[in-house]
Write the structure tokens for this entry.
Amino acid sequence: MEPWWGHNKEHGWVVLDRSIAANAPGAKDDLLFVRCRDCTVVTVKRETWRPPLYRFAPNYVAELQAPLAEEAAAVLESFKLRWPEFEGEIQRICREAAERAEAARIEEEKAKKRAAAESRKQAAAAAKAAS
């Protein structure tokens, strides 16, 4: 699936990796963009991903005057050449988030098992004391 390239007044050139589950059409999660100027992943509320805040790259370039349009198109092309780097960064961020979520799930499961074992231990002690 092709990435979505666009421009935002705050972040400049951004790219959206549609292969990320959170970025899939129809998903309800916040979107994960890569800000091209510094390869930083930024989280964006899905409802804000529309013009004029975010402009689809071809539309943004087409709206610029000749010298600025040529410069913007060249910058965009240079960022597109860096797509593997951007894709790797967003994949890393997503992988780390998934690993943290899994670690939290495992820790929660362990805590529940400890609580259940403690509850059984207390119930057994209470039953023994009652007899």
